[in-house]
């Protein structure tokens, strides 16, 4: 009796399924591809960071963080976000060497938190 109603409902359900499959899947893939990270908010070990700075960074950024071949870092905490500082130390660029793989991850995080406190 109401066969046409059932047929219509099934047809609509089928179209909906096809629509969801074609338009929703690529969107999910896009979300996964997006890069995102945060720096853990651990208090910086200032002594370790300073010692590290002196042997690895001072030559280009100055003994008073005033800058030399590289820019001044004396108030870098108000210039760049933690994520930006971390990325710069990790990847380098624009005349700065990359430190990724050269020093331990915790060392870079400690250095980042220490630099971020310079405001
Ligand atoms: C060979 C020289 C050199 C060394 C060594 C070096 N840097 Fe740099 N650094 C630079 C230069 C040049 C720039 C500017 C890059 C640019 O403009 O993109 C820079 C930029 C930066 C910036 C971004 C500054 C800003 O205002 O945008 C940070 C933060 C930084 N360096 C931290 C460090 C730390 C921490 C170390 C040690 C682990 C280090 N650098 C070692 C040359 C150096």
Describe this structure in words.
This protein is mostly helical and about 120 residues long. It is built from six helices and no strands. The chain has helices at about 5-35, 45-55, 60, 75-80, 80-90, 105-115. Helix 2 packs across helix 6 and helix 5 packs across helix 6 (about 105-115). It is rod-shaped, with a radius of gyration of 26 Å. It binds heme C. Heme C binds near residues 60, 69, 80 and 85.
Structural descriptors:
single chain; 119 residues; mainly alpha; Cytochrome Bc1 Complex, Chain D, domain 2; 2 domains; 6 helices; 61% helix; 0% strand; binds heme C
Write the layout of secondary structure elements.
Elements: H1 3-33, H2 46-56, H3 58-61, H4 76-79, H5 82-91, H6 105-116
Helix pairs in contact: 2-6, 5-6
Heme C binds next to helix 3, helix 4, helix 5 and helix 6.
CATH architecture of the largest domain: Orthogonal Bundle
Q: Return Rg in Å.
A: 26 Å
Biggest beta sheet summary: none
Give the % helix. Answer: 55-70%
């Amino acid at each position: 009796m109401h066969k046409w109603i059932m047929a219509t409902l099934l047809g609509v359900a089928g179209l909906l399924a096809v629509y969801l499959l074609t338009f929703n899947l690529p969107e999910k893939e896009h979300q996964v591809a997006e890069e995102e990270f945060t720096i853990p908010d651990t208090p910086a070990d200032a002594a370790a960071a300073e010692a590290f700075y002196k042997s690895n960074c001072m030559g280009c950024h100055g003994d008073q963080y005033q800058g030399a071949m590289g820019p001044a870092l004396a108030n870098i905490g108000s210039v760049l976000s933690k994520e930006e500082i971390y990325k710069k130390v990790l990847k380098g660029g624009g005349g700065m060497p990359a430190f990724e793989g050269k020093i331990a991850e915790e060392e870079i995080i400690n250095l980042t938190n220490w630099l971020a406190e310079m405001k």
